[in-house]
Amino acid sequence: MITTLTVLILTIVYLIPTEKETTLNTNLEVEFMTGLGTNTIYLINPDGYLVKTPILITETKKEEQVRKVLSTLTISKNSTTPTGLEAIIPEKTKVNDIVFEEGIINIDFSKQILNVEDDLEERMIESIVQSIVGLGEVKGVKMTIEKEPLTTLPRSKKKLPELLTKEFGINKEYQLQNRKDINKVVVYYNSIADDNYYYV
Fold this sequence. Notes:
4 helices, alpha+beta, four-stranded mixed β-sheet
């Protein structure tokens, strides 16, 4: 009888609802309260791959959003990039002008952008394009250096399309034996940097 009574009391105690404390993720609180959201930019990891990471953009004008992205992608002593990830645009690179017209972002850089390391020049272009096209309403990016169109990569002399779009790709590696039936595929891998998981 005592055992049955004890089981009944324990059952009632567990079935009575209790107050549960809930905490919200800080980014979600900011998004809900201000209507602002996080965007994705691409930083370089220790293995030389570009990695998606969120950035909070408070600016409303597209040109100012692009300026914020480019500032975060530029190497500086006051970098706010997550541990294990690095900016890729050479230090002291200046953005001379940004114009947003008909879905296209036109960016004029200072010549310091040409100081990019040989093995990172294509990754830098990929990072800039993918980060800016990810802002929304942006169909493509055109780049100039001191008003001269960037038509080739400075070191490898690889030709660049006049309009850089998401189709330019990211983290490209080719080990092909045959060109027959090649289809475009984007593959993301999990990577860890300083106990945080990222998609590469």
